[in-house]
Each structure stands twice: as C-alpha cells, then as structure tokens.
Automatic annotation (TrEMBL), chain A:
UniProt-listed PANTHER family: DNA-DIRECTED RNA POLYMERASE I,II,III (PTHR13946), DNA-DIRECTED RNA POLYMERASES I AND III SUBUNIT RPAC2 (PTHR13946:SF28)
Biased composition (Acidic residues): 36-55
Gene Ontology CC, one term: RNA polymerase III complex
Subcellular location: Nucleus
Main location: nucleus
Protein name: DNA-directed RNA polymerase RBP11-like dimerisation domain-containing protein
Single GO BP term: transcription elongation by RNA polymerase I
Keywords carried by this UniProt record: DNA-directed RNA polymerase, Nucleus, Transcription
CDD domains per the UniProt record, alphabetical: RNAP_I_III_AC19 (cd07029)
HAMAP family in the cross-refs: RNApol_arch_Rpo11
TrEMBL record, chain B:
Protein name per the record: DNA-directed RNA polymerase II subunit RPB3
UniProt keyword Transport present: no
A Gene Ontology molecular function term of the record: DNA binding
Organism: Xylaria multiplex
CDD domains: RNAP_II_RPB3
C-alpha cells in the first residue's frame, strides 16, 4: 500500500501540529506551511534544478469526500475564479452538480463542491474545468485582439 | 480544444467581441456569447489583479514643506508610473535579492528647493528615474498634460526643501489601489432589464420615468449632445426592447456584456484586457500545476480521517483505515499509490512537470 504509507507520513505531520494547537481552521494552514518546505528541499536535492520556489499547496480535498463527490478547498482564491470555474464545470455533461462558496469573508479561502456521474471523478472534472477555462480565455483573448486590430485598421 | 461543451444553450457562435470606441485611455467593447460568471471574472481581474508598478517605499531625507512626510509619501504612491512590459520586472518577494535590486524595483529621486519669492510647484516630472531597471521606460512617471508636468506633488515656499528617494515596486490593486491599472471599469448587461436582475424603483409610471429623453452630454467618444435615454443606458438602443405584454422568460440568461475600460495611464487600455486574461490563465495554470503535483491531496482524501470530521483527540494512526474510504483495501481508484488518478497524469508526482 504505497499510498497508505505516504498518507500516514503526511497525517503524522498533521498530528504533530494538532498536538500543539487546538483543532481550528488554523492548524490546516500551519500544517501546509510546515509540510511544504520539506517537499521543496526534497525536490531541489533530487533534481538539482533551480526551479521556481514552490507555493504552498493551493488546493486540497476536504475530508468526507468520495471519488465522485468531493469538496475542494482553494487558498487565496475568490469569486474571480470560483464563479467562472463553477460555470465551466457545470458545462461538463459528466458533472451532476457543482457549486462554490466563500465560507467566511475574512479567510482567503474558496470551497468548490463537485458531484459527478460514474463516468468520471470529481478531481478529473476539476482538472477538465481548469483546462476548459484556460481554453476559453485563449479564445476570448484571441478574439479581442483580432477585433482590436480590425477596429484600428478601420479607424485609419 | 475541448471547447464543444460551450456550444450549448445558444452560445453556438463562441465568444465574440465588438469594439465600439478606443483611444489612448479608453476601450469600450461588447463581449457576447459568454456567461455572466466569465464576464464578471474578466471585470474583476482587470480591476484588481493586473500588475503595475507604483512607489511603495519612500525615504525622506529632507522635508521642510508644510506637508507631513506620510502625506507626501501617500501622494507619491498614487503617481501613475509606466507599467508596460511589466513582465520584465520581478515581484520583490520572488526576487533573488535581499532587499531590492534593479530586477524588482525602480528607484526615483526627488530634490527640490524653492529659492525664489514665488511659490514653487513640484511635479511628477521632477522625479528622476534611476537607470538600473529592466528597460528604459518602466517606472517613468506618466505625463499626459499639454504642459508636460504630470501630477502635482507639493508646493514649496521660499527656503523650503524636499529631498526624497522612492522605491517603486510591482504589485496589484488587490493589495493597494495605487496599483490599479484602471481608473474605472464600466460593466453592464440587459439594458432593458428584461431579466429582472434589478428591481427598478419608480414613483407612478415605470416606462415614462425610466426612459425620458433628457438631453445629455456624452463625453466619450467625441463629445456630443445626445437626445439620450437617461437614465436608461445608451446600450438600450443596441438591444430590442421588450414587446408589449411579453411574458417573463425565466430561462433567459444574460448574453451581451458592455465594458467601458478607462486606463489610469500606466498600461494601454487594450493591454489591460490582455493582461487580465493572462492573469486569469496564470491562476489556472498554477492550479493545474498544483493539482498534478500534490499527492498530498490524496492524503487528505483517503486519509484516516473520519468523514464526520471528528478530529478531537483520537490518534490518527489507530483510527486509520477504518473509515469508509480506506477500508476497502485500497481497491478504489483513490487508494493504491500508483493507481491514483494522479499517478497517471502527465504531471507525474515527482515534481518534474514541465510547467
Ligand atoms: Zn530584486
């Protein structure tokens, strides 16, 4: 059970943090900050590259999720991403339900709920959503530039 | 491009842009065949997340003017600085340097002393831009007035002096409004309020009170007296008004969005749109990257945590593998290491992804 081992490692870290501070929203952030530098070091040593510094983990799956019904927590994201992502994920015919929420205005977090049919998984739907939104951005960007060129040409 | 999904619900043509006016400081356009959520994301991102450069640190060596140091520091921060090709400048927090360097900051100095009996005005043009910077325009004060003076910083009387060193840094308006690339962003849709997203207040008669032809002066583009529909939007002329007695269509969604972007001068208005979209894509790319890389996400996912969120004092290890998610002997796609959804993504889990 290779992943089980991995799981235990990361949760052991969580547990350490939990011992110090009471279980609130805070330890989650702590554990991520605490966990990340290690990951970074490991990578740097392994690859010996001066890869850009790794940001703290931005997305995680919230407890209680299953493969086809998951809640994701995004750090440092808000309505800008949340609403557009929700829309594009709902466009996916394999998705049964998608919604987002910002649980508290003074916490810089955005939660996204995805429930899919058996044809896909929630994580796959999220990945597809991110990719689709990026493609949509490409299309709009290209269209805007084309129209701008046309407008400028017509003006002169 | 997995874009076919967009072809549903009347968006058959794909996103379309129609530019109605543009000059050095404005661009007015209509964005159609996209969802309200996307149009609003674009509005939000161009207002708050397109990076620019602005004065962030001010060192005051001499200030014998009547204005307090912090007052002047604040005014300096608000001076628009040339932010074209901002990609060439690092965020100071991402830079390799200790405090600041030519790759992440631009230094501006100001030295003015009034020696005449007349009041001396100190303008943005009096700022001297340091040479250590990525290109020769970034950080230049924006000067658009015919006199070529730029923003007024302070007035000095005889004998008064200002000697100041400023460090300008890259930032976004979400952190401080001085980094906002836009002076204003107009955003509207459904000028006839057919969708009833607004509940327009009226005294006695909705129609006459909301569409009186009050002569209005349109300032842009070219100033002109229009027998305008005030307070109705000028875009009301662009869309069909509702027919008499037309039933409310509860399935209708907004489809045409009218943007009026006004630049503060740091970046051209059309570049603001481009940069905004780029910024959205940067967000997405970062998340796709993070998603592919983080096996930890699985950890939280099938980890020995009770789905009921009982985290209290129960030791992790002992309680582990009794939850519904891990109990199945890792036969689910989520359980077994190499068999996780992530194990098979092109992003791998070694951190060697090409991003
Ligand atoms: Zn630097």
């Amino acid at each position: 059970m290779p992943s089980a081992t991995k799981t235990r490692d990361s949760s052991a870290e969580d547990a350490n943090m939990e011992d110090i501070t009471p279980p609130s929203a805070q330890p989650v952030v702590d554990s991520q900050e605490g966990g990340d530098p290690m990951e970074e070091d490991g990578e740097d040593n392994e690859l010996g590259e001066e890869e850009e510094e790794e940001e703290p983990q931005r997305v995680r799956i919230l407890p209680g999720s299953t493969s086809t019904a998951a809640s994701f927590e995004f750090l440092k994201e808000g309505h800008t991403l949340g609403n557009a992502l929700r829309y594009i994920i709902m466009k996916n015919p394999d998705v049964e339900f998608c919604a987002y929420a910002i649980p508290h205005p003074s916490e810089d977090k955005m939660n996204l709920r995805i429930q899919t049919y058996d044809t896909t998984t929630a994580t796959a739907a999220l990945e597809k959503g991110l990719q689709d939104l990026e493609d949509l951005c490409d299309v709009v960007s290209e269209e805007f530039w084309t129209q701008r060129e046309n407008f400028m040409a017509a003006k002169h | 491009m997995e874009y076919d999904t967009m072809m549903m619900d009347g968006e058959s043509l794909g996103p379309s842009v129609k530019i109605s006016a543009a000059d050095n400081t404005h661009v007015d356009f209509e964005l159609s065949n996209v969802d309200l959520s996307f149009a609003n994301s674009l509005r939000r991102v161009i207002q708050a997340e397109v990076p620019t450069i602005a004065i962030d640190l001010v060192e005051i060596e001499a200030n014998t003017s009547v204005l307090a140091d912090e007052f002047i520091a604040h005014r300096l921060g608000l001076i628009p600085l040339d932010s074209r090709e901002i990609d060439q400048l690092n965020y100071t927090r991402d830079c390799d340097c200790d405090q600041s360097c030519g790759k992440c900051t631009v230094t501006l100095t100001l030295h003015a002393k009034c020696s005449s009996d007349e009041v001396m005005k100190v303008y943005a043009r009096d700022l001297i831009v340091g040479i250590d910077r990525p290109n020769n325009h970034i950080g230049n004060p924006i000067i658009t007035d015919p006199e070529g003076q730029g923003s007024l910083i302070a007035k000095l009387r005889k004998g008064q002096e200002l000697k100041i060193t400023c460090i300008a840094k890259k930032g976004i308006a979400k952190e401080h409004a001085k980094w906002a690339p836009t002076a204003a962003v107009g955003f509207e849709y459904d000028p006839h309020n057919k969708l009833h997203h607004l509940d327009l207040w009226y005294e006695t008669d909705k129609v006459s009170e909301w569409s009186v032809g009050i002569p209005t002066i349109r300032l842009f583009p070219p100033p002109r007296l229009t027998a305008g529909y005030r307070p109705k939007s000028k875009y009301a002329e662009w869309e069909e008004p509702p027919a008499e007695g037309e039933p409310f269509d509860y399935d209708a969604v907004p489809n045409r969005f009218y943007f009026e972007v006004e630049s503060a001068g740091m970046i051209e208005p059309d570049a603001i749109i481009q940069e905004g979209i780029k910024e959205l894509q940067r967000k997405l790319a970062g998340l796709i990257h993070g998603l592919g890389e983080n096996d930890d996400m699985n950890g939280d996912y099938d980890g020995p945590r009770s789905p009921d969120g009982i985290e209290g004092g129960a030791p992790w290890q002992d309680q582990g593998y009794t939850t519904p998610y891990a109990g199945a002997g890792n036969t689910s796609a989520w359980g077994g290491g190499g068999a996780t959804a992530y194990g098979t993504t092109p992003y791998g889990n070694s951190g060697s992804a090409g991003w």
